[in-house]
């Protein structure tokens, strides 16, 4: 199959040409073997992004759309650990020569997660009817994201589905470990802050039997804060501009912003490494990797580099113009671009930022925990002051009953 390509040589000059290869992955490898960095690969097959956008997905009702954007994005019933295990087992069976439909049938029987088991059953029915695995997965984009389907589509195009499944499982395992770290480091300060509102005002009930006062000083503030969080979450899911502005604000906050940016860069680098190694064209890989950051502001800035890439610029030059990436990342991108080892370079970047984000999150957890303790101390002091002030006034009234 004849492929035309556009690439960069070691001096950054644009070169074009054509070569014959059995699939896009092999074509990309042959271009790298020539000492070039592939920028665009035009093949007769459709783009990897097409299944995720227009193919195989029936129109959804407004209620289903709201469920997908508001509920499933928060809780889908299928965790990263379940998906990583699903892809890992899928890869093992494919490596053993088991057909795809039989793999799905086996996975359906042995999967303990009921939601995932039902999805596997529906996907297996589509595959049995002659559909592609990526098209079947497109029915459930809140579970099988664009990044997942791009990796699997690369496996379908190259005949290396087992390898792509294994890489996808590894990427999800790394993401699961990162999320577990975030939860572990933020649990203590958040819990302390919540308890600082709930526990100190208990003195109002224990001493004064003032239930209404407890509700006003403890429960109502938390309900108001929860309402603001829910409203912000809904706005971020339904109003894209609000989410971009909010994520930009979070990323720019002192202390917290640094940790947010590190986590986003680690996710971006991990996804780009996997997609590039799979042979996905750079513009498509950049789009999916930006979506994997979890930060809409940074993703928008990253995606703005795609027109420059399509215009023939190198990935280092295009991403440097976004002003999102630190100089170290830009330097390593340049090295990977010149040597054709962008996947290994980005994997190193991901490991570095994952380690740095763990350290930054721990430091932030300690600082927020201390801040929460200070808030709790201030609330206790205010309540004790109010209590003793009221007690003093009552004793004064009892000692001087005739005073005005």
Describe the structure.
Helix 8 (about 145-160) runs antiparallel to helix 9 and helix 13 runs antiparallel to helix 19. With about 400 residues, the chain is mainly alpha-helical. The chain is built from 19 helices and three strands. It has helices spanning about 25-35, 50-55, 60-70, 80-95, 100-110, 115-130, 135, 145-160, 160-200, 200-205, 210-240, 240-250, 255-275, 280-290, 295-305, 305-310, 315-320, 325-340, 340-400; strands spanning about 1-10, 15-20, 35-40. A hairpin with a 5-residue loop joins strand 1 (about 1-10) and strand 2. Strands 2-1-3 form a three-stranded antiparallel beta sheet. It is elongated and about 105 Å long. It has three domains: about 1-40; about 60-145, no CATH class; about 170-185 and about 195-350, no CATH class.
């Amino acid at each position: 199959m004849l492929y035309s390509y556009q690439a960069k040589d070691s001096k950054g000059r644009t070169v074009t040409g054509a070569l014959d290869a059995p699939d896009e992955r092999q074509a990309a490898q042959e271009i790298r073997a020539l000492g070039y960095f592939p920028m665009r690969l035009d093949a007769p097959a459709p783009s990897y992004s097409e299944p995720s956008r227009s193919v195989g997905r029936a129109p959804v009702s407004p209620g289903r759309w709201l469920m997908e954007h508001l509920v499933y994005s928060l809780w889908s019933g299928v965790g990263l650990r379940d998906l990583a295990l699903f892809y890992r087992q899928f890869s093992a069976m494919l490596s053993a020569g088991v057909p795809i439909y039989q793999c799905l049938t086996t996975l359906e029987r042995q999967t303990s997660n009921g939601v995932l088991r039902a999805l596997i059953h529906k996907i297996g029915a589509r595959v049995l009817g002659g559909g592609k695995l990526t098209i079947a997965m497109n029915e459930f984009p809140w579970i099988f994201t664009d990044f997942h389907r791009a990796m699997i589509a690369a496996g379908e195009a190259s005949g290396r589905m087992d390898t792509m499944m294994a890489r996808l499982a590894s990427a999800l395992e790394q993401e699961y470990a990162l999320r577990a770290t975030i939860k572990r480091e933020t649990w203590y300060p958040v819990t302390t802050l919540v308890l600082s509102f709930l526990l100190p005002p208990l003195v109002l009930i224990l001493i004064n039997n003032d239930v209404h006062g407890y509700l006003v000083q403890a429960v109502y503030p938390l309900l108001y804060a929860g309402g603001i969080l829910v409203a912000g979450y809904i706005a971020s899911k339904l109003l894209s501009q609000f989410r971009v502005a909010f994520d930009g604000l979070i990323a720019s906050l002192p202390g917290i912003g640094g940790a947010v940016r590190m986590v986003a860069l680690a996710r971006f680098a991990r996804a780009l490494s996997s997609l590039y190694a799979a042979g996905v064209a750079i513009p498509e890989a950049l789009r999916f990797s930006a979506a994997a950051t979890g930060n809409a502001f940074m993703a928008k800035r990253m995606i703005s580099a795609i027109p420059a890439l399509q215009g023939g610029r190198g990935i280092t030059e295009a991403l440097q113009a976004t002003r999102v990436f630190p100089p170290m990342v830009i330097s390593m991108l340049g090295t990977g671009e010149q040597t054709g080892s962008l996947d290994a370079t980005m994997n190193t970047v991901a490991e570095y930022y994952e380690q740095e984000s763990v350290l930054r999150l721990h430091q932030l957890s300690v600082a927020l925990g201390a801040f929460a303790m200070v808030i709790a101390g201030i609330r206790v002091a205010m309540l004790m002051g109010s209590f003793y002030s009221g007690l003093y006034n009552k004793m004064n009234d009892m000692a001087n009953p005739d005073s005005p």
